[in-house]
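for the writeup, i need someone to sanity check this before i put it in the appendix. the sequnce is what the collaborator sent (i think, or maybe the updated version? ugh). structure was predicted straight from it, no edits. if anything looks off just tell me and ill rerun, i have time this weekend
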Amino acid sequence: MHKTMEAAQAIAGLQVGTTTSARETGAAKLTALHREIVEAMPTDPRQEIRVLFARLDPGDRTPRHSHRFPVTVYILTGTFTLQLDGREPVSVRAGEVFVEPSQVKMTGRNLDPENPATMVLFYVSTPDTPFADSAD
């Protein structure tokens, strides 16, 4: 099978694979970091994709809030501790992924007394939907 076809099939099947490049060498390698089936994704004809960076310094916490759609959190540095209503606290460390469910009240904290927690957030929503709703 042609190398380009193999790469396309690997990507389509969400398997780890390689992409092709304009040159014969220098192909990128894909590594799946996380896969999860979720509910409550937007079904409108158009969606907005947001990629956000967040930093919580030692002792920082988010306001109590909820999201209308799931939020994927990828931790770059430190540890982010989430308290979601009705669940035990979840600590997500550098290199880990967590999907915050929709319509669940929560707050997030950096409990480390010395190091910041940094993360990238991925959010798909109906265009112009607020990222979070106050849960106070």
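The CA atoms of residues 18 and 29 lie 4 Å apart. Helices lie at 3-12.
thx in advance!!
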